[in-house]
Write a structure and sequence with these properties.
The protein is of the alpha/beta class and about 425 residues long. It has 11 helices and 18 strands.
Length: about 425
């Protein structure tokens, strides 16, 4: 049965955080269906008093009109805006053009930030989220997700790939607070990454704000069409900055070509951008940080015939074992994120076990890829210890020894 949204007076509250499942606004004909993947999401119901622009994200309602996005933002399920049963807008979260800017990789179980311009519509009343019907019963029975906490402190940890800006650490105070939480968990150095020019700017700013932070700068393969002459000039300047230690994340992503072709750069555009970034890594002497999603064959082909950077890092390694073996033979570094902790990913743990010392790193890819036992919650660098423990176990070594090993590799690969 749907849960009623109204207060005792029968009124729809201005703000309401919803659990996963089906919810009903009494007398309005509005149902709010929350969820859309293996990790369900929450929602906020709002009245007309919206600002001109609202951000659909997992922030405090007191700070911003918001909706907990996550898997729905990746296009798993759909979204509509309704008032008294009348559809005011469709595809709010899937969207197209400049209405919605999909967050890259939000479908990996993390939370994607989806800016929505509401000015043209003059305000909305209720956001209604839909999930595939066969998932609704299962979603309504799920238990509340526990609040993430760091693992027991492990000295000497690193985070080789994170997104501080996407994790809501942009100002100096925010960056310092997040880095300090990570330091309390034993994290000594962090590489924060930009997936587009704007986030690359924020990554480089963060690296100049805090001595524990370093930056990687590039344009994500799904956004490769944005790599115009102005972007190339600016990225070359960024790569020359001493606080930028890698060119990335760049690479190949055919997943979004198949699932969202209208808003994803085609393969030929991705390849041209990838080759340009490879050359930038060679010219600047910086490491090459690669994003690869369902692009193993093309990625390995391009890397085989392109100029060779001194260090190549395969971020959030998720490929089959044969790719892991070939990558290791070529001298590439495999970096493992929170998905190595997921129960079904035995093959990833095998890949982590076969990587030689000096060719393995760990990362959070925050705010995405949160490790077990907090999968689906918002990730941040302080949670890297959970991933470290699983990787250490897979490699048959003490987690303290793993921390020392990946710390050495971080320093060598990034030159710090």
């Amino acid at each position: 049965m749907a849960q009623k949204l109204c207060d005792e007076g029968g009124q729809l509250p201005r703000f309401l955080i919803l659990e996963s499942g089906v919810h009903d606004h009494q007398g309005s004909g509005v149902h709010v269906v929350v969820g859309g993947g293996d990790d369900e999401v929450g929602a906020v119901v709002v009245d007309k008093q919206l600002p001109d622009e609202a951000v659909l994200a997992d922030e405090s309602v007191a700070e911003r009109c918001a909706v907990h996005a996550g898997d729905v933002a990746a296009g798993i399920g759909a979204a509509e805006v309704r008032f008294e049963g009348e559809i005011l807008a469709q595809d709010l979260l899937e969207g197209s053009g400049n209405v919605v800017d999909r967050s890259v990789d939000s479908g990996d179980g993390g939370f994607g930030e989806v800016p929505v311009d509401l000015r043209a519509g003059g305000g909305i009343d209720v956001v209604e989220l839909h999930a595939p019907e066969d998932r609704l019963e299962r979603m309504s029975k799920k238990k509340p997700r526990p609040t993430p906490v760091p693992a027991e402190r492990i000295a000497g940890l690193i985070d080789a790939h994170t997104h501080l800006a996407s994790a809501k650490a942009r100002t100096k105070d925010e960056v310092d607070a997040m880095v300090n939480r990570a330091a309390d968990a034993g994290v000594e150095r962090i590489c924060t990454v930009g997936d587009g020019l704007d986030e690359a700017e924020l990554a480089l700013q963060a690296a100049h704000m805090n001595e524990r932070v370093f930056a990687a700068c590039a344009i994500h393969p799904t956004r490769a069409g944005e790599l115009d002459e102005g972007a190339r000039e600016r990225l070359a300047q960024m790569a020359a900055d001493k606080r930028c230690v890698a060119v990335g994340e760049t690479g190949i992503d055919t997943y979004w070509i198949k699932h969202d072709p209208d808003r994803t750069a085609p393969l030929e555009v991705q390849e041209e951008a990838f080759r340009w970034h490879i050359q930038l890594a060679v010219d600047s002497g910086k490491a090459l940080m690669i994003h690869n999603r369902e692009g193993d064959t093309d990625m390995m082909r391009i890397l085989a015939d392109a100029p060779q950077p001194e260090h190549v890092m395969l971020h959030c390694f998720s490929s089959p074992l044969d790719v892991a073996r070939e990558a290791v033979e070529r001298g590439y570094v495999l970096s493992f994120a929170g998905n190595v902790t997921f129960k079904r990913n035995d093959e990833l743990r095998e890949a982590a076990a076969l990587a030689p010392a000096g060719q393995l790193l760990i990362e959070t890819d925050a705010p995405y890829m949160t490790p077990e036992p907090f999968r689906g919650a918002r990730n941040e660098p302080s949670l890297i210890g959970h991933t470290a423990k699983v990787v250490a176990e897979a490699r048959g070594m003490a987690v303290e020894d793993l921390a020392a090993e990946v710390g050495d590799t971080f320093g060598r690969v990034f030159g710090v």
